[in-house]
Design brief:
Length: about 325
């Protein structure tokens, strides 16, 4: 920290960070002399701060529609590999029943969920984004791999058929833990309404951000079914290893589906052990085959990433903006 274009002058975990240009940066003159990072409790306050001129830039907006209305700023959105999904703890009843998980996969209507997120997005059916597989093969090869996978398009008829084959044909009651962030509560309300059609009665419980992360990454046998998003992602499909495998079952890990068959551990290791794109495409296709068969996660959408500013343009803004020294890409308006 502090050895790149900017040095850290102060860091207060409750308020923000102050940085100044590093005169000894090896990359040449740093165009922005000072950066102040501010922390906000919610996006509404952040949007109001942008509107008042307290902020110059918000590098990632979650609820784009609401943010644009409140801030009055111009927003820019581009496609990304960030995924929204619903996870189910595969080792805990009733979610340990694969027919329940498949029923949920059929029952969740992706366009309905995208509508309430407030941001641009497209439906997706694989945990690994197609654009990440695109680093390993041609479009034709990736499309062929994706077509080989089991898929769960919205179908109440198929969902009810899977419920009938489960050990819980008449449904059950459950709790959906969440917290007030972006559109999380709104999305959980849609999920609860759609699960109710299967006899699954979900009570939404706002437990706060800290408690939510403590539960989601706590003891693996106590991880609940949850809606979440992946946040920042990288161009490589190994990014999604974070949510799979035995190494991520430890407290603090994010295998929230408690999903770690030995075959999945082997595929994760194999995907990291070779740099050959063709071999890696075969490996990650096999991993997606396992995920589509066992359904620990229901991938819902690929979210566009959005930034807002009244003073800067960002010509190189992309879904991978966090992977570089992003502030060097800013350009003053005009």
């Amino acid at each position: 920290m502090g050895t790149g274009p900017w040095e850290i002058n102060s860091f207060d975990p409750t308020r923000g960070i102050e940085l100044s240009a590093n005169s000894h940066c090896w990359g040449g003159k740093v165009p922005i002399k000072h950066i102040s990072v501010r922390f906000f409790s919610d996006e509404t306050n952040m949007a109001l701060a942008l509107r008042s001129g307290e902020l110059d830039l918000v590098p990632q907006v979650e609820d784009a529609r609401s943010f644009a209305t409140t801030s009055g700023a111009r927003l820019t959105s581009v496609p990304s590999c960030q995924t929204g999904w619903f996870s189910m703890p595969t080792q805990t009843a009733p979610w340990s029943d694969v027919h329940i998980r498949r029923a949920v996969a059929y029952a969740l209507d992706r366009p309905d969920i995208i509508t309430v997120t407030g941001f641009p997005a497209v439906p997706t059916y694989t945990l690994i984004a197609p654009s990440q597989l695109g680093t390993l093969g041609s479009s034709a090869q990736v499309n062929s791999a994706l077509r080989s996978l089991p898929s769960y398009p919205f179908s109440l008829a198929m969902a009810r058929r899977e419920m009938a084959e489960s050990a819980y044909p008449h449904g059950f009651s459950m709790v959906l833990d969440t917290f007030n962030y972006g559109s999380f509560i709104n999305v959980n309300q849609v999920i609860a309404a759609e699960l109710k059609k299967l006899g699954i009665n979900a009570q939404i419980k706002n437990i706060g951000q800290s408690a939510w992360f403590a539960v989601a990454s706590g003891p693996d046998d106590k991880r609940p079914p949850i809606y979440s998003t992946t946040g920042a992602c990288t161009p490589d499909p190994s990014f999604y290893d974070t949510f799979l495998g035995s190494s991520n079952l430890k407290p603090g890990g994010f295998n929230v589906a408690d999903y770690a068959p030995p075959a999945v551990d082997s595929l994760i290791a194999a995907g990291l052990a070779t740099a050959d794109p063709a071999k890696r495409l075969t490996i990650y296709t096999s991993l997606l085959q396992r995920l589509a068969t066992d359904v620990p996660y229901v991938p819902l959408y690929l979210q566009d990433v959005t930034f807002a500013s009244t003073k800067f343009t960002w010509p190189a803004f992309s879904g991978y903006w966090r992977d570089g020294v992003w502030a060097l890409g800013l350009r003053p308006v005009g």
